[in-house]
Amino acid sequence: MNKKVEEIQNWYRNERELSNYSIMDIGDKLKNLAEKGLIWVLKDVDITESEEIVVDYYLHKYRAVQIYDNLQHLFPIPPSNDECASTPSKSSKKVTPLQNQQHTLEVRDVKQFNGYQKAKELEERIIELCKNFPSFEFDHIVNQIERSAESIKKRIQIGEQIYIREKFNQYSIAIGSAKETSAWLQVSLGQKYITKNQFEELDNMVNQVIGILTKNLSNIKEKEGKGLDLPSPYTPNVKNFGAYDNALMLVESIYKVTREKAFWKERYLMSKMRKQATSCVANIAEAHQLYIPKKFRFFNDSLKSLSGLESSLETSVSKGMISEQHLEKIDELKNSIRNVLTTKMSKISDEKAS
Length: 354
Prior knowledge:
By secondary structure, this protein is an all-alpha fold. It is built from 12 helices and no strands. The protein has 3 domains: 3-75, no CATH class; 111-228, Up-down Bundle (de novo design (two linked rop proteins)); 240-354, de novo design (two linked rop proteins). It has helices spanning 3-18, 23-35, 49-61, 81-84, 114-130, 138-158, 164-190, 196-222, 242-257, 267-286, 292-318, 324-353. The chain is globular, with a radius of gyration of 23 Å. 34% of the residues are buried. This is Four helix bundle protein. Pfam families: 23S_rRNA_IVP.
């Protein structure tokens, strides 16, 4: 990575840390970067949905002035508000936020971290296991479970930095990806692509990674994070969430019905329905992480998958491919999931408003 790009990305992460991730506070900084032709460097940074909207807006508005070459000759990146607040005397030494070690962490060798080692082993085991999956699942379950497993390791790597809030953010994503991985393992078990012993062994590894990350965040919050408004590092067990079990049963029902002879010539519709059903359960699992806005987003994505499945089911009924008996059971599960999610999202909205 270009050193200037990395410098700007680190500067922006620090500004987010200082502003407590408030989009109102960092909006001017994003505009400043856009006007200087550097907003594009944030496309590779993990940012919130609100930030992504603002970045895309400014990238489009200032696309003509973006600078991609010879960045090392550019002027220094803009100072933070804290640095601009006062002008130091010639004899005083200016201390930047990066030099201020309050509320920062010591960077370790991530490869020596047991959480990373477990995540790496989990990914390797899953890749090896997926070699035995049916070929028609390679662009679906195999792709998704390998992606989610890789995400755990990747986010732990990115989380090894000095910024406390960013570490919480990256570990939150890692925890969500771990829970999503567990969901794909359960789907695989349900379709008999893996044995119960294989599931239990890998699911236990997933839980170990979550436990290690949770313990680390708890220690950071208790020690280095004092005075910061950090979320609770403890996440609920998705397997105790009613909509999750029903979503798994929905997947079973969709796979069963799409194996019927009527779907043999409707491969595209069959594949779409399976993806919509499994996306519902995967999003429910991934929603069980630290930050309320992310929970809300993943629950909402699960509802979108349900709506898409509803449309596909209507098409199947119109073509006479699904019996009323099967449709009734699917509708019952679908409605139950939707009711639980909408109730949960309503409570989340109340929490955000309070």
